[in-house]
Structure formats: structure tokens, C-alpha cells
Amino acid sequence: MPLSAVRKIACGSGRIVAASKLNRHGIGFAGEVQREVGAVSCDCSRSLSDFRCLRTAPLKSLFTLSILLCGLIATTSAQAGEVAITFDDLPLFGGRFPAREEQTVTTRLLSGFRRHGWQVTGFVNEIQLEGAARDRRIGLLRQWLDAGMNLGNHGYSHLSLTRTPLEAYIMDVARGGLVTGELLSERGRSERWFRHPYLETGPTLDVRTRFERWLDEHGYRVAPVSMENSDWEFAEPYDDAVQRHDARQARQIRKAYLAYTGHAVRWYRDAAINLLGREPAFILLLHASRLNAACLDGLARILSSNRLTPVTLDQAITDPAYAIADRYAGPDGDEWVTRWSMALEKEIPGDALPDVPDEIAALDANLEAADPDPEAPPAPTPSP
Ligand SMILES: [Zn+2]
Q1: Please, which residues have CB within 8 angstroms of residue 286's CB and are 6 or more apart in sequence?
Q2: How confident is the model at residue 365 (pLDDT cuts 50, 70, 90)?
Q3: Rounded to the nearest whole angstrom, what is the distance from the C-alpha of residue 94 to the centroid of ligand 1?
Q4: Would the pTM of this model clear 0.85, i.e. be above it?
Q5: How many angstroms does the Cα of residue 64 sit away from the middle of ligand 1?
Q6: Closest by alpha carbon to 311, among 80, 21, 97?
Q7: The pLDDT value given to residue 379
Q8: How confident is the model at residue 378, as a pLDDT?
Q9: What is the pLDDT, as a whole number, of residue 209?
């Protein structure tokens, strides 16, 4: 696959759609937790009828269960106000800028991480290492490790688990750790983390279970996402503006991006507190883009003003919230706040999360139309 084919690799593209659905239709209630603990007998699947079914279940039992779960979680964590920062689609998100800028973007990212004390985990798509730029791009990954960052597997070619047969998907993931595993091995380390492209964890419980068994057998642990800011949707219009030397539009996009990020961070904190009764250690998804390289200080200011202290992914994952049973199986690529909402049967305030500004969405849609990603999830159907 040519490098241009991985230009549209966006990990969290299903999340806000899912959150909106939860709010618009009042769903977001799965019966898995109840079935597991035997509190309620319900054969619901994820649909509007599920919601109705659960609403006729013994609400007192449901309420008591939620309180017990939240209370248990609240009393066992001392990790409020923390965030693990992760970057996907390494070595570089996008492919529209000249090769000479690859080093500039990487240097700006890594120096920003050091300046703000971030110990980031980056997730690699090794398809980006193919071609004439192979040595140079592997060199960029070495720089991440030399700067004290960690690397994980994001699939070789960023496939959709929803739309790829499991055997082919597993082959792609196995291929995706060859170079990164070697780089870590040179430093006496091994690759431990895997992040699902598009956050798609499996269209059926059988696929999900079989793939997670494969991950376990090969020493991988899933890297959840519990905070994101749709940065991928801003990143490509930004690249386009920079390429056209449109400094005014580039500045507008940076400003809109940081404003949106401020809203998104606040929304995730509120939603998590609403669900868990406290703030978990968040795991933030960003992409290794030119936009984030340019906005790193602004992003750090937003995290700091929200009193979120950077921690490693290894530290964040010890938060008990990530042990909440997540049995979702389906086509959506939901982040973990939505998954907690389903598991705990509590709604999240989807309407409070603002949409990406129309002008940004339109710019991104135009670029997508000109160079579509064959793996990206279908665009959502507008609500009536
Ligand atoms: Zn990705």
C-alpha cells in the first residue's frame, strides 16, 4: 500500500458519533454487567428496544448495582487528576508535507514532551516505514525511544477489525511489531502495548475474544482511550493550509483546535465523574501530526489548567476504572468512557460535547473526498 493510502488513518473517528447516538436515542445501555452478576435477567442487545427493556427491569436493583460499583471504584483509587498521553499513527500522521519536515515535526514533538515532562507512548503503523524513506523513518522511531518515550503496535497497515477477517487482521498486527519490537529489543525492552485502529475491538464477541486471546498469548496489552479531541479532523486541513502557505487559515485552525480541545477535556472529566463518582486516570489519544507539534504548549496548558498531571500509560492503566467489565461487541469504535457508560448503565451527556466546528469538518470532508481512506469507518448518517 502506498504511503498516500495511510494518510487518512484516524483512530478515534467513531467515538463522537457513538456518543451522539447514545444521547439522541437514549441508548448506551448494555445488559452484560447485569447478566454477569445475575442482578437482572435481560436478553437485550444494543438497540432502542434494549433501553426500553432495561427500563422495565427492576430499577432499584440497577440503581443499587451502579452505586455499589461506583462506590467500590471511588474508594480504591488515589489517581484523580492524572492523564497518560498517547500518540497514534507513528512515525508521522499524514503524508502531505515534504520529507524535510518529518524531522522538524518529530523534533518539535519530542522537545515539547521533554519541556512538559510527558512520558508518551507512541503507536506505530509500520507500513509507513516502507519505501525509499525507510531508514529515515526508522530513525525517527529511534529518536522517540532515545527521548525516553515508549512505542507500541497499532497494526502494520491500520486495518479495521470490524471489516477485516480475523485471520488477516492478526497477520497484519503480527507484521506490525517487527521493526518496533527490534528497536525495543536493542534497548533490552519488548513491545507490550497494542492499540486498535479506529478503536474497533471486534464486531462480534467471538472475534473480540479470539483476538484478545491472541494478544495475550503474544504478550500484548490493549491500550484503552478515555479522552480524545478529534485532532485528526483538524490535522489534515491544517497540513493543507500550511502547504498552501495560508498562514491565516493555519492560525485559525490552531485556534479552533485548542478551543475545541478545552471543551473536550472538560467534557470527558465531567462525563467520567458522572459515571464513576470521581476522575479516573485518563488516557488521552492524540496523533503524531504537524498540528500537534505546533500546538504542544497549548495542549499542555489545557491539561495543566484542568489539573491533569502527566503519567505513563503503565501508571494510568492501574486505575480500577480500566478493570470495569467491557463486553461490547459491535461495529463501533468507542472510547472507554462510552464503554463505561454501557457497562455501568449510566448515560453520558452527549449533547454537552460540542461538535467539531462546521468549517473544520467541511475542510476535512473535502480532503477526504479527494483522497479517501478505504479502511475508515463510513460517515455517520445525519440525525433526523
Ligand atoms: Zn490510528
Answers
A1: 85, 86, 87, 88, 228, 229, 231, 292, 299
A2: confident
A3: 11
A4: no
A5: 38
A6: 80
A7: 54
A8: 57
A9: 97
Domain ranges of the chain: 15-77+342-355+364-370, 80-321
Residue 50 Cα to ligand 1 middle (Å): 31
C-alpha cell at 225: 482511550
What gap in Å lies between CA 282 and CA 262, rounded to an integer? 15
Bridge pairing between strands 227-228 and 309-311: unpaired
Positions of E strands within the chain: 82-90, 121-124, 150-153, 193-194, 221-222, 227-228, 282-287, 309-311
Q: What is the CATH number assigned to the segment(s) 80-321?
A: 3.20.20.370
Distance 288 CA to ligand 1 centre (A): 10
Q: How far away, in angstroms, is 100 Cα from ligand 1 center?
A: 23
CA of 154 to the centre of ligand 1 (A): 7
8 CA from centroid of ligand 1 (Å): 9
Of 26, 9, 24, residue with least CA distance to 123 = 9
The Å distance, Cα 373 to ligand 1 centre, comes to 12
Q: How confident is the model at residue 287 (pLDDT cuts 50, 70, 90)?
A: very high
Element (H, E) at 110: helix 100-116
Mean pLDDT to the nearest integer, 2-24: 33
Residue-wise pLDDT for 262-281, tens only, equals 999 999 999 999 999 999 99
CB neighbour class for 256 (10 Å; exposed up to 12, middle 13-18, buried from 19): middle
Q: Is 287 helix (H, G, I), strand (E, B) or coil?
A: strand
Please calculate the CA angle 335-340-341 and round it to the nearest 5 degrees.
100
State yes or no: cis peptide before 378, omega within 30 of 0: no
CA atoms of 240 and 184, how far apart (whole Å): 34
CA of 227 to the centre of ligand 1 (A): 15
Instruction: Decide if 344 contacts 272 (C-beta within 8 A).
Output: no
**Mean of per-residue pLDDT scores for the chain:** 80
Task: Say which residue the cell 468549517 belongs to.
Answer: 359
Compute the distance from residue 377 Cα to the ligand 1 centre, in Å: 12
